């Protein structure tokens, strides 16, 4: 996701912070991991990512504690450790794509032993995080042995403590939440239900394939590129357009949307009888309908909120 804005306050702050706060650069020597489009290599990627989870969490947690210490102790090592641990977290995240010339876990342990956490203690805000992690550890390991009680130092000050101690009121929306029937336009069905259900079955079939049956070429595929999900999607659009619906998609689209989101009274009353899986594939349905005919799709929704109840 990308947040873009021309708000002067945000732009001025971004310009200031870009100039005053240096970006950490990772200069650790590295070499690429070579992968092929095989089940074995995809399993290797998953295993490398899984193996890096502890290093990612460990380095990020220590970096946060070090950052808290920089507000309380005039020791350059804590500032340095924030940068080092941030770089180690980058290495751990990228570990599946390339190998770095460093032992991540040993380096994280070395830094932790030099941080004097037993003497300095944890900042108060860390209590919720540590208790959550300890409880999760006990459930996973199926043990009843609690870890040594942590020392929380109330004299440590940092911005995160302010957020932790601040009593934030729950925001109640000032405007009501509108349901689909407030802006959905239900057009009469002008083609046969048989054709509508043919399109529905295509979307159900392809959406299931996109989620669960994505195939990977074998080693002897002559180095063909892997079949991308986009290719499956384009094939589905092509098949839908081959269904003879005379280019008038309004009735079909509103019929499909109605069945997916269960909007109209007739669909709601017969919901148990309707054997449709569209409600489990809403995102793919909307993307499909928009791709087939954007103008007709947008006509299924009113620009103004109406009270249809």
Tell how many strands the DSSP assignment holds.
Answer: 2
Average residue-wise pLDDT: 79
Structural class: mainly alpha
Give, in spatial order, the strands making up the sheet with the most strands: 1-2
Question: What is the ordering of alpha helices and beta strands?
Answer: HEHHEHHHHHHHHHH
As an assembly, this protein is: single chain
Task: Please summarize the sheet with the most strands.
Answer: 2 strands, antiparallel
Which term fits the overall shape? elongated
Helix content: 40-55%
- Spatial extent as radius of gyration: 28 Å
Helix count, DSSP H or I runs of 4 or more residues: 13
Domain tally: 2
Cα end-to-end separation:
36 Å
Q: Which keywords apply here?
A:
single chain; 2 strands; mainly alpha; 2% strand; two-stranded antiparallel sheet; 309 residues; 54% helix
How would you portray this structure in words?
The chain is mainly alpha-helical. The protein has 2 domains: 8-165, no CATH class; 180-298, no CATH class. The protein is built from 13 helices and 2 strands. Strands 1-2 form a two-stranded antiparallel ribbon. The chain is elongated.
